[in-house]
Amino acid sequence: MKVYHKLVRDKIPEIIENDGHKAKYQILSKEDYLLALDKKLLEEVEEYQADKSLEEIADVLEVLYAICNARGYTIEELEIKRKGKNAERGNFDQRIFLESVE
User: Fold this and answer.
1) Using alpha carbons only, how large is the chain's radius of gyration in Å?
2) What's the pLDDT tens digit per position in 49-59?
């Protein structure tokens, strides 16, 4: 038996059982879900840092979307906030690395 103790995508138990195994899982409370999402975000960022693949970027984004929804925001609200910050402060396209301020 392999132990995971981590948040997984919704179809994972079904995939495991279709593969002939038995998945033991629970549905988290909202509070525990938020904590698990925070851990999952760190896990996915670490995987991205190791791999740098588009697949890992998609996983990070999926967790961010889930966090957004779990905290009561919509993806549209997130995008509006992102665009507002972009308009006010810019993005990262020019690759500016601030060294110091006097």
Assistant:
1) 18
2) 999 999 999 99
